[in-house]
Amino acid sequence: QVQLVESGGGLVQAGGSLRLSCAASGRGFSSYGMGWLRQAPGKEREFVASISWNGGSTIYGDSVKGRFTISRDNAKNTVYLQMNSLKPEDTAVYFCAASRSMLGSRSYSGYDYWGQGTQVTVSS
């Protein structure tokens, strides 16, 4: 139904910024809640941020509050994650995900479609 492709990952120094993009193809993007989750080596996927179908509600994981901003542009079928003040502990593969729930989800199981991920590495 939906395919998601992340981009924008890379290597950045601590304190720097990076903007991730997730381009969606397929019908119904504006009906999905969207989220970003990340997975560091040897760890479970961690909730980063979610945004409701119309962008009216956003939720952030505690570790990124005040530093990251999720947004979406339904006209472009794209969701973004602006990451500022990056820390080495932000190093992970970042996944874009879509939920059939219009509100998104804080839970891994709440997402129905996943991108393949993009690597973010923050050097100290």
Task: Give the SSE layout.
Layout (H helix, E strand, L loop, with lengths): L2 E5 L2 E4 L4 E8 L7 E7 L6 E6 L6 E3 L7 E6 L4 E6 L8 E8 L13 E2 L3 E6 L1
Parallel strand pairs: 2-11
Antiparallel strand pairs: 1-3, 3-8, 4-5, 4-9, 5-6, 7-8, 9-10, 9-11
Instruction: Outline the low-pLDDT stretches.
Output: none
- Determine the number of helices (DSSP H or I, runs of at least 4 residues): 0
Largest pleated sheet: 7 strands, mixed
**Oligomeric form:** single chain
Measured by DSSP, the beta-strand proportion falls in over 45%
Helicity, as a percent range = under 10%
List keywords for this structure.
124 residues; mainly beta; 7-stranded mixed β-sheet; 11 strands; globular
What does this 3D model show about the protein?
With 124 residues, the protein is an all-beta fold. It is 0% helix and 49% strand. The protein has no helices and eleven strands. It has strands spanning 3-7, 10-13, 18-25, 33-39, 46-51, 58-60, 68-73, 78-83, 92-99, 113-114, 118-123. Strands 2, 4, 5, 6, 9, 10 and 11 form a seven-stranded mixed β-sheet that branches. A hairpin with a 6-residue loop joins strand 4 and strand 5. The chain is globular.
